[in-house]
Amino acid sequence: MSGEKPPVEFCKGVNGLDKVVLREAKGSSAEQVYLYGGQVTSWKNDQGEELLFVSSKAIFKPPKAIRGGIPICFPQFSNNGPLEQHGFARNRFWSIDTDPPPFPTNTSNKAFVDLILKPSEEDLKIWPHSYEFRLRVTLGPGGDLMLTSRIRNTNNDGKPFSFTFAYHTYFSVSDISEVRVEGLETLDYLDNLQEKQRFTEQGDAITFESEVDKIYLGTPTKIAILDHEKKRTFVLRKDGLPDAVVWNPWDKKAKAMADFGDDEYKHMLCVEAAAIEKPITLKPGEEWKGRLELSTVPSSYCSGQLDPQRVLQG
Ligand SMILES: O=P(O)(O)OC[C@H]1O[C@H](O)[C@H](O)[C@@H](O)[C@@H]1O
């Protein structure tokens, strides 16, 4: 039909950077993916409401990673190693993967894009390993956002490599003090604000009244973020990613970040599906897969109702 927008569109974003727009068949929900960082920067529902947070001060210019959306932390999460904070995948230019190996779950869905990252000569100097990192980003028929990472060791020197990883997802929330996270109660975590010491989460669902920077360990495959004011619940499902980072910089750290507004901490929360505590090791020829699926349901779906059937049908 004339006037109908295509499910996949290649265009230019901020500062002329290449981006891909994915649209659902009904045309109402959409995602944007920048080749810079292989980064999702927008995910809208069928009402046109933005579900991800991107800072109004985000710098869309290398070498700074884009502040918001879903940066990919690879091959190192945070500063736990010799590389720059969160590794380098988030500030490299990815390419469109024109010939991706087959996907087991190939549906009739057309709103997806395959990206690929391989090391440059310069990258090999700081991390001397050959790899192919394939990322498929899909907008599902119900407006769900799905990311699948496939990382393969292509070293021909016989050497294995190890890495840590996170989908550093910035969710947009109405008011951080009205938000709760369910699914992480009673779990152990490493507290980045207390020299990565290990603690056990006590009590009920997690709420926010000050800076938080924790790595929850051995988390369930499903986590919910309840936004009471918006009457919306985000449901995060993950596979191959045992850990979950929860981060909000709060006021002091917000002020210290050049690419983050002073009050923006009130409207975002990072819940990051990750593999951190036990690094992934791949021998040459081996591949690792890590999947993240995000959806939203109205907040009638609330505390204690983490029933997969309801979510799928809701
Ligand atoms: O400022 P960035 O390098 O993007 O990192 C932002 C944040 O990422 C993660 O959530 C870490 O756990 C935090 O310690 C870090 O402050």
Automatic annotation (TrEMBL):
<dbReference type="InterPro" id="IPR025532">
    <property type="entry name" value="G6P_1-epimerase"/>
</dbReference>
<feature type="binding site">
    <location>
        <position position="90"/>
    </location>
    <ligand>
        <name>substrate</name>
    </ligand>
</feature>
<dbReference type="InterPro" id="IPR011013">
    <property type="entry name" value="Gal_mutarotase_sf_dom"/>
</dbReference>
<dbReference type="Pfam" id="PF01263">
    <property type="entry name" value="Aldose_epim"/>
</dbReference>
<feature type="active site">
    <location>
        <position position="168"/>
    </location>
</feature>
<protein>
    <recommendedName>
        <fullName>glucose-6-phosphate 1-epimerase</fullName>
        <ecNumber>5.1.3.15</ecNumber>
    </recommendedName>
</protein>
<comment type="similarity">
    <text>Belongs to the glucose-6-phosphate 1-epimerase family.</text>
</comment>
<dbReference type="GO" id="GO:0047938">
    <property type="term" value="F:glucose-6-phosphate 1-epimerase activity"/>
</dbReference>
<dbReference type="InterPro" id="IPR008183">
    <property type="entry name" value="Aldose_1/G6P_1-epimerase"/>
</dbReference>
<dbReference type="GO" id="GO:0005737">
    <property type="term" value="C:cytoplasm"/>
</dbReference>
<dbReference type="GO" id="GO:0030246">
    <property type="term" value="F:carbohydrate binding"/>
</dbReference>
<keyword id="KW-0413">Isomerase</keyword>
<feature type="active site">
    <location>
        <position position="272"/>
    </location>
</feature>
<dbReference type="GO" id="GO:0005975">
    <property type="term" value="P:carbohydrate metabolic process"/>
</dbReference>
<feature type="binding site">
    <location>
        <position position="67"/>
    </location>
    <ligand>
        <name>substrate</name>
    </ligand>
</feature>
<feature type="binding site">
    <location>
        <position position="85"/>
    </location>
    <ligand>
        <name>substrate</name>
    </ligand>
</feature>
<dbReference type="InterPro" id="IPR014718">
    <property type="entry name" value="GH-type_carb-bd"/>
</dbReference>
